[in-house]
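To the wet lab folks,

You asked to see what we're planning to order before we commit. Fair enough. Below is the target structure as C-alpha cells, and below that is the sequence we designed to fit it. If anything looks off to you, flag it before the synthesis order goes out.
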C-alpha cells in the first residue's frame, strides 16, 4: 500500500487539490482496467475513465444507484425488475421501494417480459452460501427473453476474487470485501447503459455520486484490488485449502450440513449448519474464544426477515443452526486447524448440555 499520503479535495484548483485529483484519476484508471480487460460490454479506455467507474461509499449505495437510477431513467415507459428472493438486502430493498411506489413492477426470473425495459439483478457470489452464480447463463436466458435486458451483478463477494463476468452491464463492488477501508466502493457501468442520478449536489462522479470523494480510501482500494487481481489464482488455491480444512468438520461431527446449491462455490465463504445448536448461540460462544464468524449477511441481521437459507429452500432446522465463515488469503492453515478445534469443542459442549 506504500507510505501514508494526505489527500485534499480533488475539486479544489490549488496544487494539493490537483495532486489529489491526479491520484483519484489514477485509481479510477486502475479499477477501470479490470473491467476493460474482462468485460465484453466495456466502453473504450478513455470513456471508461470518465464514465465507467463511479466511486461510492460501498456496495449498498452502489446497488441503490444502479437499481433506482435504472428505474428513474425509464419511469415514463416503465420497467420490470427481476431478482432472486434471497439476494442481498441492498438489492431487494430498492427493488421493493420502487415497486411499492408503482415506479416499476417486479417479475420472476422465469417471467421476463419480451418487450420494454428490464433490469435483472443477481449476485456474482451468493453472500450466504458462497455459490458462484452462472452469470453467463442467467444473462443469456434474460436476453433471449428480452434483448434489451440489463444485467446488474452485485459483485461484493466476487470482486478481485473471481473473474468479472464478461456479460455484466453493471457491476457493483465494496472496498471492505477486498481489504480496503470500510466506507468505500463503487460501480462500473457498461456502454449503452443510462442511469438517472438519485443524488444531487456538486457534480462529482459524473453527477452520479455528488460530494467530495474519499480519495485516501479510494487510492487504498485501487491498490488492494490491483494486488488481489494479480494474485487471484494463487490466493484462490491457498484459501481453498483453508476452506477444505474447516469443511472437514462434517467428517468429524455428526449431523453437520455444508450448505451450498451447486458444485461451483467460492473458496472464500463456507456456510455450515451444526444441527441442534442455534447459529446465534454458536456465533457468540466462538466470539468469546476469539473466533469471529457470522450468521450470514450483516445487513440482513438488522431486518426481521426470513433467513436467506429458507428463501433458498433449506428447512428451518438448517437455517437456524447455520453459521457463515469467511476466509482471506491472509489466513493460515494453522489458524484453520485452530478454528476447527474451537468449533468442534463448542458444538460438542452445547449438544451435551441439551442431551
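Sequence we intend to order:
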Amino acid at each position: 500500500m506504500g507510505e501514508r499520503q494526505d489527500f485534499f479535495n480533488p475539486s479544489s484548483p490549488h496544487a494539493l487539490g490537483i495532486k489529489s485529483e491526479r491520484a483519484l484519476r489514477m485509481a479510477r484508471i486502475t479499477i477501470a482496467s479490470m473491467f476493460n480487460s474482462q468485460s465484453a460490454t466495456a466502453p473504450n479506455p478513455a470513456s471508461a475513465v470518465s464514465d465507467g467507474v463511479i466511486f461510492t461509499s460501498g456496495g449498498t449505495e452502489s446497488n441503490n444507484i444502479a437499481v433506482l437510477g435504472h428505474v428513474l431513467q425509464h419511469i415514463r415507459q416503465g420497467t420490470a425488475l427481476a431478482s432472486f428472493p434471497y439476494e442481498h438486502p441492498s438489492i431487494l430493498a430498492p427493488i421493493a421501494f420502487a415497486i411499492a411506489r408503482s415506479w416499476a413492477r417486479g417479475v420472476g426470473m422465469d417471467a421476463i417480459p419480451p418487450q420494454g425495459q428490464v433490469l435483472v439483478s443477481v449476485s456474482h457470489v451468493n453472500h450466504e452460501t458462497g455459490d458462484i452464480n452462472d452469470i453467463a447463463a442467467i444473462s443469456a436466458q434474460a436476453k433471449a427473453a428480452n434483448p434489451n435486458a440489463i444485467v446488474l451483478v452485485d459483485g461484493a463477494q466476487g470482486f478481485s476474487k473471481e473473474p468479472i463476468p464478461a456479460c455484466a452491464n453493471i457491476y457493483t463492488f465494496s472496498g471492505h470485501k477486498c481489504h480496503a477501508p470500510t466506507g468505500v466502493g463503487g460501480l462500473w457501468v457498461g456502454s449503452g447503459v443510462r442511469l438517472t442520478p438519485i443524488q444531487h449536489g456538486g457534480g462529482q462522479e459524473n453527477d452520479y455520486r455528488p460530494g467530495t470523494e474519499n480519495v485516501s480510501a479510494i487510492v487504498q482500494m485501487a491498490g488492494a484490488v490491483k494486488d488481489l487481481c494479480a494474485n487471484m489464482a494463487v490466493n484462490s488455491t491457498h484459501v481453498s485449502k483453508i476452506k477444505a480444512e474447516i469443511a472437514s468438520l462434517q467428517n468429524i461431527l455428526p449431523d453437520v450440513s455444508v450448505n451450498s446449491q451447486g458444485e461451483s462455490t467460492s473458496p472464500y465463504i463456507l456456510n455450515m449448519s451444526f444441527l441442534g445448536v442455534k447459529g446465534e448461540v454458536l456465533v457468540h460462544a466462538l466470539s468469546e474464544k476469539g473466533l469471529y464468524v457470522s450468521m450470514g449477511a450483516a445487513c440482513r441481521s438488522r431486518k426481521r426477515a426470513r433467513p436467506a437459507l429458507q428463501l433458498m429452500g433449506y428447512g428451518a432446522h438448517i437455517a437456524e443452526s447455520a453459521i457463515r465463515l469467511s476466509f482471506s488469503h491472509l489466513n493460515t492453515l494453522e489458524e484453520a486447524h485452530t478454528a476447527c478445534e474451537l468449533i468442534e469443542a463448542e458444538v460438542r459442549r452445547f449438544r451435551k448440555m441439551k442431551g
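Structural context that might help your review: The longest strand covers residues 117-123. Residues 39 and 336 are 35 Å apart (CA to CA).

Thanks,
Computational group
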